[in-house]
Write a structure and sequence with these properties.
The protein contains 14 helices and no strands. It is mostly helical. The chain has three domains: about 150 residues; about 80 residues; about 90 residues, no CATH class.
């Protein structure tokens, strides 16, 4: 009951984000009206640039407090009071998604507000053509934000490509796939993964390394099957069902990561919604400010590692840094050298009899 209540309270922070942006939009309208009355143009001056930065700092602080409260309160309640791993995971995942969406909502509206107040030719030309369907500040509406909340993307836009209608047969097929695969994952975990884990406890206690290795090999097989089923259920079935329900047109949730030539390509293709968020709001801005590729990449991997640790460690009440150290931070050097393995393999001498 507590998890369900918390799940429905998390979107209240989206309402707070909307109110913050609504106040910022009203202030932007007033500023532009004064600028046009004064000299008939809205070209930025040094004084206007300082005022814009000062206003953005206040807006940034308001958004930061809002989204931080959403994540901190959810994490505290899930870690101390919700002891069901599935309920805790769903609630924590929802909080992280709202956190990412609110951050994108604030950062994108900042750029749109700057283009609205100081519409220089280069900045206006850089805006995508689809943005003209809902120009700033007309995009700052509750309906626009609610659609972004449900849309299967983490990057905010005033408007998205939309399909003409909902294909109900396609929708129910995808939902059926998601339900069937969820049942399969539960069955495989209960019938195969759990017994292997239980049978491994005494071997770990006695340091029987041969048996431990054998259990690890068994567990790796079923874990791979469960991961593939989970990937298909989420990225192919559920996200496509959600996209169909919201008539969301851009459905590139993943690329053929199984053909990746290296870890770098794999990270960029297996989870495109998260990749696009980090590229849009962390990596590209840091590169534009002069940071090196390695520095920007490390910050992205560090942020991803923290989020992975929150999503796994908090619902399981087991924050030990495993996801932080293994899944992302230690994979960063390999990602920066994606061709290391292929270079090592090609440097080996050929086997006799092979051409």
């Amino acid at each position: 009951m507590l998890g369900l209540l918390l799940y429905f309270l998390i979107p209240c922070h989206l309402l707070a984000a909307y109110l913050i942006e609504l106040a910022a939009a009203q202030q932007a309208k007033s500023s532009r009206a004064r600028a046009e009355k004064r000299d008939g143009t809205s070209s930025p001056t040094e004084d206007q640039a300082k005022k814009f930065q000062a206003a953005w700092k206040l807006i940034w602080v308001a958004h930061a407090v809002n989204v931080s409260l959403a994540l901190v309160i959810t994490t505290f309640v899930v870690y101390h009071y919700i002891h069901h791993p599935l309920v805790g995971t769903i609630t924590e995942l929802h909080a992280v998604i709202v956190w990412l969406k609110t951050a994108s909502y604030a950062l994108t509206n900042r750029d749109l507000r700057h283009a609205y107040l100081h519409p220089t030719r280069g900045e206006l030309d850089a805006l995508p053509e689809i943005y003209k369907q809902c120009p700033y500040p007309k995009n700052v509406t509750m309906g626009n934000l609610v659609y972004f909340w449900w849309a299967p993307t983490l990057v905010y836009q005033p408007a998205y490509p939309r399909t003409d209608k909902i294909r109900w047969v396609f929708l129910f097929k995808r939902l059926g796939e998601a339900v069937c695969l969820s049942v399969f994952i539960w069955f495989a975990s209960a019938q195969y993964a759990t017994p292997v884990l239980r049978n491994s406890l005494d071997k770990i206690a006695s340091l029987d390394f041969t048996s431990i290795l054998e259990r690890l090999l068994k567990l790796s097989t079923i874990s791979l099957v469960i991961w593939l089923a989970g990937f298909f259920a989420l990225f192919q079935s559920f996200l496509n069902a959600l996209a169909e329900l919201t008539r969301f047109g851009d459905r590139a949730f993943y690329d053929p990561w199984w053909n990746s030539a290296g870890l770098g390509e794999y990270w960029r293709t297996w989870n495109k919604p998260v990749y696009q968020f980090f590229k849009r709001h962390i990596y590209s801005p840091m590169r534009a400010r002069g940071y090196s590729n390695r520095t920007a990449g490390f910050v992205v991997f560090f942020a991803s590692a923290v989020l992975h640790e929150i999503l796994v460690g908090v619902p399981t009440h087991n924050i030990i840094g495993t996801c932080f150290s293994v899944s992302d931070t230690r994979a960063y050097p390999l990602q920066m050298s994606p061709n290391l393995l292929s270079r090592c393999i090609t440097s080996l001498p050929p086997f006799p009899g092979l051409c």
